[in-house]
Structures are given as C-alpha cells and as structure tokens.
Amino acid sequence: MLQHHDGKICILLLLPCAVFFMILSYGLNNKRYLDSSSLFGFEGEWDAAYLLVKKNETNSSLSAGIGDEIMMNNSLRNEIVTLQFNSSLPSSSGTMKMMSTMSNEEENIITSNPLQNANAFEAVTFTLNGKNQRMSASMERKITPTKLLSSSTITTVSSASDANSLLGSKENPLTLVLQISGEIGNHLSKLIYGYGIRWMLYEDYNISTHMVLRHQNNGKWSFAVKNLQQCFPTTRQWDFGAGNTDEYERRQQQQRRLLNIQRKDDDNMFEMNPNCETEQCIRQRLNVIVQNLQPLYNVSSNSNTTNITLPFLYLNSFGNIGYINDQYHERITKDLLPYDFNNPLCCKTKSYSNESVLHIRGFLWEMPRKGKKRGYEELSPIKVATELIDKKNNSSYRKVGLVGRLPAVVQNYTQILLRYNIQARHIQDQNPMQDFCFLLSGTTLLGYTMSTYAIMAAYWGNATTANLYSLKSPERIANDINNDNSYFVRYNFTNPILRKRIQFTLYNNEEQDRIEQLESNVTDSNSNQYENK
After folding, report:
1. Strand partners, 444
2. What DSSP state is assigned to residue 49?
3. Angle subtended at Cα 272 by Cα 432 and Cα 64, rounded to the nearest 5 degrees
4. Alpha helices, DSSP H only, in 102-219?
5. How is residue 233 annotated by DSSP?
6. Residue ranges in the chain whose pLDDT is less than 70
7. By C-alpha distance, which of 328, 333, 338 is closest to 494?
8. DSSP assignment, residue 38?
9. For residue 315, which of 103, 142, 208, 283 sits 20 to 30 Å off, Cα-Cα?
10. What is the spatial distance between Cα 299 and Cα 143, in angstroms, rounded to a whole number?
C-alpha cells in the first residue's frame, strides 16, 4: 500500500500513473504509436482482449488486440513489471500465444493450446535491471481454417443468422480495399473489377460491403484521378485516398498476423489474385472468402471506431477482358460510370462517320530496353497499313484517325499509312480524355489488347466494330509459360452488345513471320525429299 512508503516513493508511483492515463487518452483518440521514456507506447485497435499491467506493484490496465504490441522503456533501475493477458474472446480452433521480449533477454513465450473460452494466461514478471531497457509484449492467434466447402454447400450470411453483428450484414458491411494504380485506363479497369466483386458478393452471397479506395504512392495517380473525376461525374465525390491512412497500414499488419502470413509470397485468402478474371477463378476465390469470413471475424480485433473491418478483402486486379466486363457492361458504363460527352474538357474532336479510329500506345518508346522482352511490342506501322487495315476489305478502314500519348510516334505511323494510300490524320492538341472521347466516337475502333486505354474505349464506346488485336512474337511466345497461347487475348462474350461489337484478332510481328517462313520451308523441303524417294 502507498502509506507504507515515504513521500518520494509515493511521488514516484503516482506520477507514472497520471502520465499513463494521459497517454492512454491521447492514444485512444488518435490511434497512433506512442513511446514514452517513462511509461508505455501502444498502437492498434483495442477491443479484443484485456492486458493487466503491474508496475512496481501499482496496477494499471490497458486493452489490447490480437497481434498488437505493448512497448515500454523503464525509467528506473530494478523496476518490476508484470504482464497478464486475459482472453474474453469466443472459443475457436487454433492457438493463442503471448510473447514478451526484453532488449537483453531471451524471448519468453506462453502458449495456450487449444484456445478455449475466457481462460487467462499465467502472469509473467520481469525485473528491468538497466535504465531505459526496452521491453515489448504481444499476443498472437493462429487460426486453423475449417475445411473449405464447395459453392453448392456454402451457407450465406442471411441463412446462417440474422444477427446484425455478422460481418457482411447491412449493419456491419465487409470492407473492400480497392488498390488503384496506373493511369486512366488502369483506373477504369480496376474500378470495373472492384465494383463487379462488390455486386457479386451482394447478389450471389448476400454479403454487404463498403468500398475503400487506396491510391498508389507514384505521383501519376493524381493526374489520372483528376481526369477521371473531370469526365466521369459520379466519381467526383469519391475519396481516392480513403485507404492511404495509418489505420490501413495497421489493419494490414493485423490481417497478416491473423492469417499467419509471414512471407511476401504466402497466399492471402482475402486477396483476389491479380489475373483472376474468369468466372471459375473468381467464384472459387469468393467461396473461400465467404466460408472463412465469419470464423476469422469472431476472433479478430474490431471496434466501432474503425473504418476498415478485420478481415477485409484486398483487391488489386484488373477488369480488362473477362467475366465481370461481360456480366456488368451496361451497369458499369451507363449507371456507375457514365461519360460526360457534353464537357468540352472531355470531348473535342470527333471522328467522321466513315472513319476508323486507331490508338497507338507506343510502349517500346517508353520501355526501349525491356518493353519487347516483356511482350509490349505493337504492330509496326507497315503491319498496321498492310494487315490491320488493308486486309479488312472494308472501305471505312481506308480512312483512319490516329491518337496516342506520344506525338512523334503517332506521326510516324500517320506518315507511313499515307504512303500506303490510306487517308490518315493525326489528331493532335488534345488532352488524354479528349483523345479517349475521340476513340469512343468511332464506328470502327482499332486497338492493342495490351493497352487498357484502348480496351476501355472499346468497352465504353459506340463502335459498331472494335478490333482488339494481339501480337505473336518470339518474346511473347517465350512468356507463354503454360503453353496455352496466352499471347492471344480473347474472350467469348455472352453480353449481346459486346459479342457483336468486339473482335479479337492475332497478327505476327516481322520476326515471327521469318521464323514461320523458315519452318515452312524446312517442312516443304522434307516433304519433297520424301516424295522423291
């Protein structure tokens, strides 16, 4: 008791307590990491477990979440600190671990296995011998996922329970963190994918969600968002930095611990695979997510003050050509993201009624050393003139308007097309959105499948025909590691508008032509030798 100590000791005991509660109040309001030379620092969400701290026999209490860490530096020699974790969480399969570390000591680990109801861990007492010696303690839980069920046996939230506390209910929606990156084409592609996943979760699994947008660190995102909000009016109130917060960083670390993700290449069941665009791939992943959603939520650290649930679903995929584009075409282009054709900053020059529109991306001029090896080579100007345009036997193809981000590259294509008696004009002095509108206005669109900008123009535009071509080259064949002709991008649309509008074609580059010609000559030679025998 305090009365058994002299005045100096009382001051030493009372002062840390007062400072502690001041720091606690500040930390809970601001949710930031603190570190005090005399007491505690803390971070994270604090509603999942209870931590009892005894310091020199003075009791203090603090709530801590799974995976959160308590840190302290002692200000006195021979301070005694006792830590005790008490779990008040529901029972679950798996293990819980309390770990403590001092700067000059071995790790001390106490494990309760299996986790059962509200059993308290035994207390751990340390004597901090050296002044300013650092100690930290944390609690972890490793979940043993239940057996995954097929889509036919998955129980949705509504049929499992009507409780408002269920994650994914209307009152407690699951967070979707949508990672936005790149420029206008990539932004649109990722928004398509994110909202498609959101609609699928609600319509097919009865999971309510709320979207949190997170932009990349590269500064070009701000220019892309400015263009997007300028010409897609519904996005003007969207916060593209809602996920660029300390809260997200904290939640990301908590989720990694919750899912026991220790290495960068470990599978994260709450992240959609980057190239998952087919219906089969998407549904397989969503089945896993829905099956594990509630068990993980029951043992996670959540509070009413957070904007991001734990677990949350992280989306960093493109909706270029696949199931979501096919399924939600009108809903996306007409309802979610209609284009502002009446804004002069969004539309300037439009195509003639009998004029094709051609987009030139110019990847190899941006990536002269690595672009070709990575498969970003486009059709050459001569190939565009003699194959993409000339072999179509369509009079409208003989008149072409060209746009692209690199004027010198587009001008080179224009001049070569003119030499082949194609009426080509280079559309210049426009911003990226005005170029986009020009592509939308064409009745016949020509573009490369490696350009999301061209794909989005085919998707949003009014073209009667959109010819999206792929390139076959030695480099793209070498990148086809599964030998499934992945260099030829194509999709069998069921949407009647897209099925009628979009055509997928494949062309060789000049080097591939030479290789195939040599192979053909060898085959012919061998055939002739056989016949002569």
Report:
1. 356, 465
2. E
3. 110
4. 157-160, 184-205
5. G
6. 1-165, 299-305, 391-397, 523-533
7. 328
8. S
9. 142
10. 9
